[in-house]
Design brief:
The termini are far apart. The chain has one domain: Nucleoside Triphosphate Pyrophosphohydrolase. It is an alpha+beta fold. It is built from four helices and nine strands; from the N terminus they run E-E-H-E-E-E-E-H-E-E-E-H-H. It is globular, with a radius of gyration of 15 Å. Helices cover 27% and strands 36% of the residues. The longest helix has 16 residues.
Length: 171
């Protein structure tokens, strides 16, 4: 069983738990979200595979997951970006936030989320067990679509995107 790193509100490690247990009990755990932009400033979104254990079929940032116990967060971002999207990029951590949300399948996402930015100009090679589709979108169009069609997007993307937009302007 895959495990996640349990943390407190300052991201200090407090233990570990099986991934499903953490989501069933709503335990605070470490996570990351990767936002890949192309040279035109467009964001690569992925649509989560419908078969995912939660939020299946929803659009979200380029890659998101959890570091494994004993794995540092930056290494985990590179591992999962390659596993999900079939490429790697230089990444820079730009933001952190904590969120808690009730999800489908009686699960709760309670995460200390590290946000990373990177750049890539090619097409991904999707892992179809993880990702159903992808697209490039400019941040302004995405902000509008999140307002008008919020049901199509993951909770964590909606929660952090206004802060992401502010950080884009500073990068």
């Amino acid at each position: 069983m895959e495990k996640v790193i349990l943390v407190d509100n300052q991201d200090k490690i407090t233990g570990e738990a099986e991934k499903m247990e953490a989501h069933e009990k709503g335990l605070l755990h470490r996570a990351f979200s990767v936002f890949i932009f192309n040279s035109k400033g467009e964001l690569m979104l992925q649509r989560r595979a419908k078969s995912k254990y939660h939020s299946g079929g929803l659009w979200t940032n380029t890659c998101c997951s959890h570091p494994l116990p004993g794995e540092n967060t930056i290494s985990a971002t590179h591992r999962r970006l390659k596993e999900e999207m079939g490429f790697d990029s230089e990444l820079k951590e730009i933001h952190e936030f904590v969120y808690k949300a009730k999800l489908d399948n009686n699960l709760t996402e309670y995460e200390y989320d590290h946000v990373f930015f990177g750049e890539y100009n090619g097409d991904p090679v999707l892992n179809l067990d993880e990702v159903d589709d992808w697209k490039w979108i400019d941040p302004k169009s995405l902000s509008e679509d999140i307002k008008n069609n919020s049901q199509n997007y993951t909770y964590w993307l909606k929660d952090c995107f206004s802060d992401v937009v502010k950080k884009i302007k500073n990068c």
